[in-house]
Amino acid sequence: MSAADSYCTNPCGCRAWHRSLTLDQQNRIIDLESRLSFQEQTIHTLSDQVVALQHQLKVLQNSFELLVNKLQQVDENGEIIDEPPPHY
What we know:
mainly alpha; two-stranded antiparallel sheet; 2 strands
């Protein structure tokens, strides 16, 4: 057993020998875990924004189509052509 090996001091109670991590390595792991957590939260937030924007785009597309249809019903004099429905 080398000097870098030590008895497990984690609360897991595994009673096993582990290679000790240096304080620098522990800090790097904590930093990486923190960054990963932040990135996961950012991805979740961006995903929610994409869904909201897709919904908003769909609403705007529907409104645009309605406006185009209304404009197509306007004659050259600026009056809305009021045609009876096809069943008349």
